Amino acid sequence: MGRLIGFDPTVFVDAATPGLIEIAEDIAAEVEPHYPTVEVAVDAGGVSVVTHGSFDHFKEWGSVNNSPLAYMRRAASARGNYTPEGK
Amino acid sequence: MTVLALPYGSRVAIGALLADLDALLTAEGHTDFVVGNNVGTDVTHDTYPFVRVSQVGGSLAEPESIYWLADTVLQIDVWGPGGNDRFAAHTIAETAARVLVSLSGSVEYTIGTSTVTAVVSRCVVGVVTDTTDEALTPPRPYSRFDAVLTAHPQPNTGS
Predict the structure, then answer these.
(1) Any bridge partners for residue B39, and if so which?
(2) On chain B, which terminus has fewer CB atoms closer than 10 Å, C or N?
(3) Which of B127, B129, B148 sits opposite A82 (nearest CB)?
(4) Residue in A64, A68, A86 closest to B129 by CB
(5) CA B100 to CA B16: how far, in whole Å?
(6) What SS3 class is residue B69?
(7) What pTM value is reported for the model?
(8) Whole-number Å distance between alpha carbons of A52 and A78
């Protein structure tokens, strides 16, 4: 697999809209008790808050026996301008 | 100072779906997929299809100044009627999304014996995700989307 010579991923951090990383860190801190693997990711797609837990999707989206707890979306929407999935 | 109650977003959505979802499904030839009264906040029985509407937070549009216009985040889950479940669940969900995105202006619905009212500015819906509910045996296809309902109380309620 090739690699990009001279590619510096830190440029994404520099290019991120000021404030977005801080907001993402706030969201991550709020959901961390529920999603211990949460982390903030900055890449070409922008600033993201992601988790890696095997069952986190059940907590977030629920099942027939469990209403969605939506910790991530609650934290994001509380900070305004939430956009639905896939929009 | 009187502070008005914000619209109950999930009940507005449930009212709209009870009122309009089956008519749209039927008009488009999906008579096998009609949901009847199986629209609610909890899956309380084992008859499908079922549409669940969950209110999962949100924010005030102007939190610093006025308690009035709310962005309510909703999640809509759809389990199909059995048989060709994948197509059914997706079709019902996609049709429900169109019902919600059509919401606008003053609305009033009666659910059971209670009435829900609101003035809807808009409802932004996401794209339907097809997935599988593994909590059921055997696992059952279901489809979901989330939405943001922007609404405020009816002005004639005392503003």
Answers:
(1) B51
(2) N
(3) B148
(4) A86
(5) 7
(6) coil
(7) 0.87
(8) 22
